[in-house]
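Handoff note, outgoing to incoming analyst
You'll be picking up this chain. Sequence as last confirmed:
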Amino acid sequence: MIAGVAGVSFFVGALGILTIMLITVLERVGEIGSRVAVGARPHDIVAQFMCESLLLGVCGGALGFGLGAVATLGFGELTAWTTCVSFECGIAAFVLSAVVGLASGVYPALRASRLNPIVALRAQ
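Most recent structure output, in case you need it:
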């Protein structure tokens, strides 16, 4: 049951990152066009947006793990139950959130790298 909840959480997080990155691409069309006009290759644009989506995923994973750890330990104190937060689960959370961030950033990054620089510069 916990794995199902975690799977739904990762799916919702992936949709959130995908949406944020698509909006970011639309808002920064002029910036992308300027970068391409001064010599940035499509690979550079992809790398920029992939780094941003990775950062979103890792920050979301850190925030989620931190809040979960505090809630778990606080619940254990309130109920006098034995609870623990393992280091391995923390590492797994960071790795999975990084993978979700990278996977969610692929489509927006490719879309940004394929923008026509002339059309993008006109959008400024």
